Amino acid sequence: MHWLLEHHRDLIDAELGPQRGRAGPDQGGGRYLANGVQASEKVYESFRLEVTNPGGHSSLPRKDNAIYRLAAALGRLAAFDFPVQLSEVTRAYFDRMASIAPGADADDMKAVLRTPPDAAALARLSDSRTTTRLMRTTCVATRGWRAGTRTTRFPRWRARP
Are 65 and 158 contacting, i.e. CB atoms less than 8 angstroms apart? Predict the structure, then answer.
């Protein structure tokens, strides 16, 4: 590659270039169905959760302490099923892939393009690492905790990730 860059740049100048080691969906037996091109990017949004209550000492525990309330909120977030959002790029991907994907996968891709999308097809495509990332946000993570003033103290005012 270095030699081409130095001596024959004109042979490799291109608007697009395949990335080695990044193949598309596997058709089985190491045969690839397609090699995708990234045409859009997800964005993220950060949130800070803050829970307050009167606090207390660990020798007199409260059932409604801020840590447990925050944990319950995070549990509800973990159980939340983010809605499917098909962008123009995702719709085009499913439309084109449906013409070359094998059997049931092709049928599911066509079914999610209907209005409204077929719920069973959405569920099946959501089980696939390849297609679920195209349809919804699935990355929810907490970065850390700050709570209380000592290990024996429940937070008086707030607990936040």
Answer: no
- Report d(CA 20, CA 129) in Å as an integer: 20
* Domain, as residue range, for 96: 83-136
What's the total number of domains in the chain?
Answer: 2
Q: Has this prediction a pTM greater than 0.85? A: no
Whether 122 is in a domain gets the answer yes
Strand locations in the chain, DSSP E?
A: 26-28, 31-32, 56-57, 146-147, 153-154, 159-160
pLDDT in tens, 105-161: 999 999 999 999 999 999 999 888 778 777 776 555 555 566 655 554 555 555 455
SS percent in the chain: helix, strand, coil, step 5: 35, 10, 55
